[in-house]
Amino acid sequence: MPDVAGLRPTPDRVRETLFNWLQPIVAGAHCLDLYAGTGALGLEALSRGAADAILIEHDPVLIAQIWRNIEVLDAGASVRAEQAEALKWLRHNENKFDLVFLDPPFGQGLVAKSAQMLKEQECLLPQALIYMESEPGVLPPDGFKVVKEGKAGKVKFMLVELL
After folding, report:
1. pLDDT tens column, 56-114
2. To 10 degrees, the CA torsion angle through 14, 146, 155, 50?
3. CATH entry 3.40.50.720 includes domain 14-19+26-162
């Protein structure tokens, strides 16, 4: 992956825990990796049987690398990667998702803003789960409940669902 300021790939240990949590539901899921970064979460969901995934990344260097990775992995029709600012993209999204990955830049309140927008724009299918990765102390916004959570170093991660 390119050396991009602020890029914080999900640690392997956290990703392993996450996909252990998701194992019963990832097969056939419609996924959104909203702050894709490296694209690792969305691409791993596909490798574990997700029906499809949309990866949204604003940085042009990162999205170019994601497109190359999609080509190398021959992910083809099951994945779509777009260069866009996440919240603007959500305003125009008409897709519905079973599983959403939210791993935005820290310290900007984007976890809560993104989750609220997913709810307001009706982007979530019934029983949808949202993976949130943030700095410690961040709570899910009103209207969501924590299903599972963990901490690794300075990273808090949780799986949430709508109330």
Report:
1. 999 999 999 999 989 988 877 899 999 999 999 999 999 999 999 999 998 899 999 99
2. 40
3. no
Separation between Cα atoms, residue 100 and residue 90, nearest integer Å: 12
| Token pair of 31 as six digits | 């996924």
Rounded-to-integer distance, Cα 159 and Cα 132, Å: 6
CA proximity to 111, closest of 79, 144, 83: 144
Confidence of residue 7 (pLDDT cuts 50, 70, 90): very low
- Tokens in use for 102? 């939210």
Neighbouring C-alpha atoms within 13 Å toward the C-beta of 128? 22
pTM over 0.85: yes
CA distance 119 to 143: 9
pLDDT in tens, 135-147: 988 888 899 999 9
Q: What DSSP state is assigned to residue 77? A: G
